[in-house]
Amino acid sequence: MRRPFASVRARTTLTATVVVAAALVVTGLAVVLILRAGLDRQTDLRSEVTAREVAAQLSTGVPAARLDLPDGEEHPVQVVASGGRVVAASEKLTAVSGTGVPAAPPATAAPSPAGDADDGADSDGTDNDGTDNDRDDDSPPPRGEVSDDVRHGAGSATVDGESAGYRFASVEVTTPAGETLTVHAGTDVESARAAVGTVTRAMLAGLPLLLLVVAGVTWLVTRRALRPVAAIRGELAAITASSDLARRVPVPASHDEVADLAVTTNETLTALERSVERQRGFVADASHELRSPIAALRTELEVAAAHPELLDLDGLTGEVVRLQHLAADLLLLARLDAGERPARPKPVALADLVREEVARRAATDRIPVTFDLRAAPVVEGSPERLARVLGNLLDNAQRHASCEVNVTLREEDGGWAVMDITDDGPGVPEADRERIFERFVRLDDARSRDDGGAGLGLAIARDLVRILGGTLTVGAVPRGGAHFRIRLAVRDVPGGSRGRA
Questions:
Q1: CA distance 8 to 221
Q2: What domain range includes position 179?
Q3: What span, in angstroms and rounded, lies between the C-alpha atoms of 335 and 328?
Q4: Residue 95 has pLDDT above 70, yes or no
Q5: I need a surface site. Which of 12, 196, 199, 279 has the fewest CB within 10 A?
Q6: Domain annotation covers residue 231
């Protein structure tokens, strides 16, 4: 039974929904924080403008009692002298927090230390000391100074009995009389907080709906995207049930990764079909080849049982040897098909290998083998398998040669060892030069069978050379005959293993 969210579609939908939810939450939080910071900056700016407007009045000499203050509910203002004494405040402002001076001013504000407008001057326009107080009309009125610095902070204010949150801006100002005052002006933050809350609630309300849409769209898109995969799986299941390797999975026209998967699957099925056909042919050919020596052995043994005097021991021995070689060849091909590789490749001196193989054959060969060792390259591989390759090629050459078989060893530029095996036989027709490397293929069936060949030697030789990273090809000798060429990569050996033989 499939577990919940075991399907790719369910996992993809869940993952997409979770990722979108996380992204929306992070984005929403960032939007709320940015919106709140922007509204706070706007509120601070409005508070600063109000504070500087009041400070500008004070800098021109307007007494605290005559200041034109804004509405206390929207912009509560507090003017504080040194020592924390409140000299002016908005109407109906009774309590403040966040400015450092919690108390509101008394019902009657204390007079300015500079005195009333007519203090120190008589009605006739002269100072108390009798000095004329009239000024030149062209002289500028005395002005104070408004500080460029501003401080911002959060607090609350109680206006007409109702408390609310405010953002305060504090600006210092020096009056024309030299007195330093601090103007605290606030701006209501409730509207900004309400706006932030409205945006937050709207996003929270829309989040589930948006996630539902994302999940639904992802589910549908994933189902559509995986439909070719389901078709491929279904066809593979049918192929497995029917064992019909000739069938192929459908390839979608989307030209995407799923189409690539289908193409690769079909290529794998093609290779598998060829492998199975090759194995079936191999088994059939092996059975056919084994039947002949086994039948011959049985016949000889039956004759010997009935007529002991007719027992042909040489014939029996020959059939047993032939059967032994065939079984060994079949076993080696089976190992090569299974991907067996040499356990530990070793350096192999090809010149020594040629000398040893030719010397081993010298006493029994029908056709003598000559060699021309123009170099002594060293390759990486298995000495036994390379000897098997050379032996198979010499067997084939001697089987078809008239009176001459030659081996030439040289080294080509680019790091390649080249071994040529030639004979003076009839040669290989150009149309059959690749077919002779197939298993159980004999161009002259009758003679090959009489000589003991089963058509496996050349196939084994090419497979062994290919495993070592080389090539084995066949051509023709100009004067007539077959020309087999082995090319193997030369191994670089410290101390110089290359050179003349």
A1: 12
A2: 1-107+143-244
A3: 11
A4: yes
A5: 279
A6: yes
